[in-house]
Amino acid sequence: MSIGVAIIGGDSTSVTLYSDDSGAGKTYDDLLARDDVNAVIIALPILNQPEYIKKALLRGKHVSDPRLSEKPVAKDIATATSLISWYRSTIDPSKVSWAVAENFRYLNTLDTAAEVVPSMGRILGFHLHLYSLTEPGGKYFETAWRKTPDHQGGFLLDAGVHFIAGIRLLLGKENPVTNLSAQTVQLQKHLPPVDTVDAALKARNGATGTMSMSFGTTFSGMEWKVACEKGVVSVSNGSVKIGEKEKKVEDEASGVPPEVRAWGKALSEGKVNERQSPEEALADLEILEAMLKSGENGGERVELNHQVV
């Protein structure tokens, strides 16, 4: 696989390509060595990311050189915790910072709902469902590393962490998920190793909930719901429902533009946006991996250890 990036001149007519096969002086290392490159956004296939993240962090030259990498933080918890531990022990955060992207944390619908939930009293329960049928021929399926995944969970890992980030945002930092059990299955031959998960979860305050995600079903739709003492808060199809009142809320694209702006704003203030910390992304990944592991073991209960961020 050739990993490349184009540097486009100010008039958008001058393009310099850096890639594994662009020849001498045009490698990723050469790109990082440029004095005019400070900020780096890394959006690569899941298995490639750690190597490129480490190189970018080690080549930081200036005060507050920022790096933003794509979700998930890594292919599994073992790789993620090792990478984060290396970062925290090796890199001086006053000179080089690492943030992990998760655009669903910047959806206006989820933000609006998350602001309301604390005012609705104690959380009594929560539900997330995501249903779709990913078919051959689509632009995401036809990406080689997604079509034949070497990472756990296939599309569940690549896309599922988005929706987990959403329910975690609604539950809030004071009420993280503590344990879960799940069942998994592969419904479609072209979506290995599994494409569907149904899980039961428990939060710190004792509330229970469910997550049901499938990329191989004829069910359709997605919704996040949190039941509180004063009513239900839900997010679905560009609207936020609070009790019986429905409010139309427009998301900006898929959350990517506000996500990148938040990254830039935090960096101008000399810090990392807390929603983009590697540990926040680790918490998303932990829930997804725990569901997959539980499914592999017949629904065995799994305790979570990385949810307090």
Strand content: 25-35%
Biggest pleated-sheet summary? 9 strands, mixed
Sequence of strands across the biggest β-sheet: 13-12-11-10-6-9-8-7-14
Query: What percentage of residues falls in helices of 4 or more residues?
Result: 25-40%
- Shape, please? globular
Termini Cα gap: 35 Å
Order of helices and strands: EEHEHEHEHEHHEEEEEEEHHE
Calculate Rg over CA atoms: 20 Å
What brief labels describe this structure?
3-stranded parallel β-sheet; 309 residues; globular; alpha+beta; 9-stranded mixed β-sheet; single chain
List the helices and strands and how they pair.
Layout: E1 4-8, E2 15-19, H1 28-33, E3 40-42, H2 49-58, E4 65-69, H3 77-90, E5 96-100, H4 108-116, E6 123-133, H5 144-147, H6 155-171, E7 177-185, E8 196-203, E9 208-214, E10 216-228, E11 231-236, E12 239-242, E13 245-248, H7 256-268, H8 278-296, E14 302-303
Helix pairs in contact: 3-8, 4-6, 6-8
